[in-house]
Design goal:
Blueprint lengths: L3 H11 L6 E5 L6 H14 L4 E5 L13 H8 L3 E5 L4 E5 L9 H7 L7 E5 L8 E5 L15 E6 L10 E3 L3 H13 L1
Parallel strand pairs: 1-5, 1-6, 2-5, 6-7, 7-8
Antiparallel strand pairs: 3-4
Length: 184
């Protein structure tokens, strides 16, 4: 099994701009998105520009029926780039049933603008992750089979082996851990 330190070098070599990639691994319903929403403003206050990649296990659409971008995509455009002076969005159709590759998604980001790439999902890939665990869900701990977990955030005191235990309900503590991890 690959460990998180060697994986960091792997992701750095894969990542043309050598930006740190950190994931959040947990079972559905554990609160990954809720935590990340709380973490982002704290990390921003620490001066970090963070990019986010979220894996969805279902079909989704950011276009709304009736909008020009929706009409263009439905008419056959395989990619539609919507841009204004406030933001831009690239909508790319992918072959049905093909799982996205994390390394391709990272390379799609404007890495010159970010200090850190956070990933929600892709927990089976070998890259550094913080595991979120709620014993009340009665799910197994992920770190036992994943040497890429660098810390565990839980809402209860649990055994974490040699890994740091973070308070899942304290985003500031988790943000401080991330900042220290980045400085290593």
């Amino acid at each position: 099994m690959i460990n998180a330190r060697s994986d960091y070098r792997y992701w750095g070599a894969m990542n043309k701009k050598h930006k740190p990639v950190l994931g959040f691994a947990a079972y559905s319903g554990t609160g990954k998105t809720t935590l990340i929403i709380s973490l982002l403003p704290i990390l921003q206050d620490k001066g970090l520009n963070v990019a986010m990649i979220k894996h969805a296990h279902h079909d989704f659409d950011i276009d709304m029926p009736g909008k020009d971008s929706y009409k263009l995509r439905k008419a056959g455009a395989s990619q539609v780039l919507i841009a204004s002076n406030y933001r831009r969005a690239l909508i790319t159709e992918t072959p049905e049933g093909e799982e996205p590759k994390l390394e391709n998604l990272i390379s799609d980001l404007d890495l010159e603008q970010v200090d850190l790439v956070l990933v929600e999902g892709f927990r089976h890939l070998p890259f550094p992750k913080i595991e979120l665990h709620r014993p009340s869900t009665e799910k197994e701990l992920i770190y036992i089979d994943d040497g890429n977990v660098i810390a565990i955030a839980s809402d209860e005191h649990i055994s974490t082996g040699n890994l740091p235990l973070l308070n899942l309900n304290n985003p500031q503590e988790i943000a401080d851990f991330i900042q220290n991890w980045l400085m290593e």
